[in-house]
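Re: that chain you flagged

S.,

Sorry for the slow reply, it's been a week of failed gels. I finally had a moment to sit down with the sequence you sent. For the record, here it is as I used it:
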Amino acid sequence: MQHMIELDRINENILCELEKNARVTNTDLASIVGLSPSACLRRVQDLEKIGVIKGYHATIDRAQLGIGCIAYVAVGLCDHTKKSQLAFEQAIVGSKEVRECHNITGAYEYLLRVETTNLVTYKAFHTDTLGVLPQVNSITTFIVMESAK
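Prediction finished late last night. Pasting the structure tokens below so you have them in one place:
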């Protein structure tokens, strides 16, 4: 069983600021959260060491890379066996269009985040990748029109 880590207000503020801007300097972060730079750095390093901070990443503007179609795709499998799940996951892991693959509860087994250049290339993915998998029983697509957050 995983143990939940208790955070004090300062650590919560550090995490909040790092989520907003992971490139903030330690000096600026310390000033924002009300610590000395050395105390702030020590806390950030502790949060990294215990695994609360798993890494830092860049936010990519996918439109600049030609990604014009983002879809969330709910996938239902033909049967609910571990064998079918593993076969589906192995087939999907190599697909460059699938940015996220989540095994979920409810009416579907999987929720995928799919990114393609446009609707035509999404249709090709839908037909030629998902549509040919023997484990797939149903595909329900939600096309992102705009993202508020």
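What I noticed first: Residues 37-49 form the longest helix (13 residues).

Talk soon,
D.
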